[in-house]
Amino acid sequence: MSGIKVFLIVGTTVVVAGVSIACNNVHRQRRSAAEGVVRLQAAWNRGACEEIFDNADGYFRRNQVRDNRLRQCAELRQQLGSWHSFQVKQTVTWPVGPVGIVWASGTADFDHGTHPFRADFNMKSSTARLWNMRLELEDRVVQIPGFSGRLVD
C-alpha cells in the first residue's frame, strides 16, 4: 500500500510540474510577443523598414515582394508618423503548445491617431519573429503580408 501512495505522490507531482511548465511556456511566449511589438515599434521609429522585413519570419518575407513592402512601410510611416505607444489588450497563443503563432493585439498610438493593431509572431526560434501584422485605419485595413491561404510554413 505504501508503494501505491508513493506512486500517487510522484505521479501527481509530475502532472503538476508538467502543467506548471506548460503554463510558464505560454506565459513566456506571450511576453515574447509583447517584446516583439516593442522591437517592431523601435524599428518603425528609426525608419528601419528594411530591418523589419529582413528580421521577420520566412512566411512574412516569402508572401510579399520586398520592394512593395518597403514602399508600403514608408508610405504608412509618412501617413501615421512616429509610433508612441502600444497598449496590449490581448495575447493569444495558437496552437497552444511549445511552438506556434502568438499574437498581441491592442491599440497603437501614432502622431496622427490611435489605431487597432495586431502583430503575429512565430515562436519557432529563440526570438519571436514577425509573421503577420494588421493595422486598422479609418479608411482601410492593412494586413501584411495578407493571408496567403496557408496556415503553416
Q: Could you provide a short overview of the structure?
A:
With 153 residues, the protein is of the alpha+beta class. Helix content is 47%, strand content 29%. The chain has a 5-stranded antiparallel beta sheet with strand order 1-2-3-4-5.
Describe this structure in words.
The protein is α+β, with helices and mostly antiparallel strands and 153 residues long. Helices cover 47% and strands 29% of the residues. It has a single domain (2-144), classed as Nuclear Transport Factor 2, Chain: A (Roll), CATH 3.10.450. It has 4 helices and 5 strands. The chain has a 5-stranded antiparallel sheet with strand order 1-2-3-4-5. The longest helix has 45 residues, at 2-46. The radius of gyration is 19 Å and the shape is globular.
What distinguishing features does this structure have?
153 residues; alpha+beta; Nuclear Transport Factor 2, Chain: A; five-stranded antiparallel β-sheet; 4 helices; 5 strands; 47% helix; globular
Mean pLDDT: 80
Question: How many distinct folded domains?
Answer: 1
Distance between the termini: 51 Å
The biggest beta sheet, please? 5 strands, antiparallel
Low-confidence runs:
5-24
The CATH architecture can be given as Roll
Q: Can you list the strand order of the major beta sheet?
A: 1-2-3-4-5
What portion of residues belong to β-strands? 25-35%
Number of separate helices: 4
* CATH fold-level topology: Nuclear Transport Factor 2, Chain: A
Rg over alpha carbons: 19 Å
State the CATH class. Alpha Beta
